[in-house]
Design goal:
This protein is α/β, with parallel strands linked by helices. It has 2 domains: 41 residues, no CATH class; 98 residues. It has 6 helices and 6 strands; from the N terminus they run βββααβαβαβαα. The strands form 2 sheets. It has a 3-stranded antiparallel β-sheet. Strand 2 and strand 3 form a beta hairpin. The longest helix is centred in the middle third of the chain and has 16 residues.
Amino acid sequence: MPDSAATPLLDVRDLSVSFRTEGGMVRAVDRLSLMAQGIGGGTRIGESLATFNRWHARRVINSRTAVMIVSDGYDTGEPEQLGNEMRRLRQRCRRIVWLNPLIGWRDYSPQARGMQAALPYVDLFAPAHNLDSLAALEPYLARL
């Protein structure tokens, strides 16, 4: 990630909004249109886990199962529901690994309410922002 003090993250020119990433400039307008379609604008993680816990967990998760969640933790539902469903999931499985692509950003802190509700039930909270961060998981995953 570029140094945020030297490189602005947001740039407004001629009513087109863009921001800098490792891959170059990204148009925020394009990102907003994806969010309007329900892509990348936050998810109802607690609701999804409730459905999973109710209909599938008993059948596919046991005390030897490691559950891996890949999410930025921006839950658009109630954080209490996410916390409750994470607790239910944690009671069934051996480990919960939460891979968050935002951890790779400089100065990231898990301040989203959903992430705060989930963290007490997470055994490993790790980055997933590039291939190196995923490769670094190998020693941990090998011990599960």
